[in-house]
Amino acid sequence: MMLPFLTAALAFSATVYSHPETEEERLAQVATLNRIAAHSKRSLANCANSPDAMALRKRAVARRAAWADELRNKRGLQSRAERRDVKDLEKYLATSHNQTSQAFTLDTPVETLFGSNASCILVPETIVGPYYVEGESFRKDVTDKEPGVASHLDFQFIDINTCKAVPNLIIDLWHANATGVYSGVTAELQGGLKTNFGRGIQQTDKDGVVQFDTIFPGHYVGRTNHFHVMSTDNATILPNGTFEGGTASHIGQVYFDQSLIEEVEKNAPYVENKQPITDNRQDEYTGDEASPDYDPFMKYVYLGDEAKDGLLLWITVGIDITSNYNANITVASHWHPGGGTDEGDRLKEVAVVSPKTSASPAVHQGMHWTKLFLASLSLAMLI
């Protein structure tokens, strides 16, 4: 069954994946990922025509279209869509996710432009990465005056078991700046503990939606351009504007068309990034074995004639809220107003919450590109 509204990022109670070192390990991992995707796709298939899902899609279309118009008006840009056709190719890495098509005019229905017509699912990256910072503040704008192509993000979270939106999730977003530097950490060549750009948290609304204003992230050694996203439920919101506790039900990364990356990186300050370029096919975490079952790339529209005029990007994220990935989280540092403290890649404590299905225990150390992420000790049987 086709899923006309979801380009979904699935977080299923599973395992932590390291980069496979042998062909046998690679094939085994691909088989596991495909099994997860197939299992979860069956769950999402039931959502295709459910009243809840159809209502969510309708509201998502209206929300994205209205936000695009608002952003264009703020920049004094003509509210139009005039770019290349969306290509229908075999693999997602070769598929354009640009919705600003030459075939679209001012008379094009917003359902066509801002709806999601893919029938595919993303198996999540369940490695949190080396630069996760605890204690971030609730805020929509995470730019902190960093220069770059303005990027406005719309994430919607759907429960794959009920087809309903997931409200009251805490969503962590973090990413590198235009020259591939992360804030808030002490690792060599990074921004340091007194910086906080590209980081923030939001709470999903009744439609399971959060929105962020930021810049398009740059590449760095060994990694293509990407956003990190983590969802936490049952968290306690603190008076100081952050949160504690809760259960991580999704840890993922989202990516962009290579053509979009190349267009963005023609502009300053991206051209000043001297780190070697790693494209989508070279990055070991993009899901280069993309199949018809999962798609890790965000859809987007240009707000003007070119990417440098700004972008609106979106993705719908399907999660299993019974998942628990707390054991997968390593904390590089903890943010406090005015500066952070180095946490030495400690394992995040498992929160005491209502019973949930736990992922396999894992021993991780968040590391720079010179080290490998450690894998979990065992794989959970999924089906």
Automatic annotation (TrEMBL):
Residues 128-224 form the Intradiol ring-cleavage dioxygenases domain. It holds the Pfam family Dioxygenase_C. Keywords: Dioxygenase, Oxidoreductase, Signal. Residues 1-18 form the signal peptide. One of its GO terms (molecular function) is oxidoreductase activity, acting on single donors with incorporation of molecular oxygen, incorporation of two atoms of oxygen. CDD domains: intradiol_dioxygenase_like. This is Intradiol ring-cleavage dioxygenase, core.
